[in-house]
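Cross-posted from the bioinformatics board.
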Amino acid sequence: MAKLYFKPSKKEENLVVPSKRTIDFLLNYSKSLQVLEFQNFKFETILN
Amino acid sequence: MKNNTLSDAVLVNNYISGNESALSILIERHKQRIYSFIYSKVFDRDASEDIFQDTFIKVIRTLKNGKYNEEGKFLPWVMRIAHNLVIDHFRKGNRMPKFEDNGEFSIFSVISDGNLNAEKKLIKSQVEDDLRNIIQELPEDQKEVLVMRMYKDMSFKEISDKTGVSINTALGRMRYALINLRKVIEKNNIVLTD
């Protein structure tokens, strides 16, 4: 009986981590972000 | 497998050097802790996802711009960013109405304006008229003080100067004016709510 009550549900397990979509977005964002330096200035560009 | 044993500092350096997979390991390693922290504050799945995403966007930009210094440790630094973004979230929440995607969406809960509608305007003006009429029933000295205080927004010092009585007397007249107003309202069963 205790197992029934204390085993976290699938929903709760998912609740403590961000979705795969969010992580994929971050990894893709990171890959596409380029920082260019030109005469002491830094420019951020997002490459598609 | 070897990558998973690398310290955060090494992974951060690798990432700054251009190794994109280092970021993936860092996120995998700390995602639960950071996300749980955010969720424990905002108790909202969508908001937590947004804040988690914004946190790492900030991390990525800082690292790629070469602005990260190794003074602090990676995880406390990221947690601090997340913490600041949680605070921003609550500040923003106070200014902007929140739309919750719970399936029962009413457009009026988002777009309704704070202005009074025609019915409420009418009721408000009737209440104000009634109140003005009741004030006319007060003794002259009390009416004078109440009008100066409530309608002309004068301080009791100014009322005292203007009427030539002491501040205490002005305060007393205001008190009796309010007591008498209540009596009239109760006696005549006047409803002054909108």
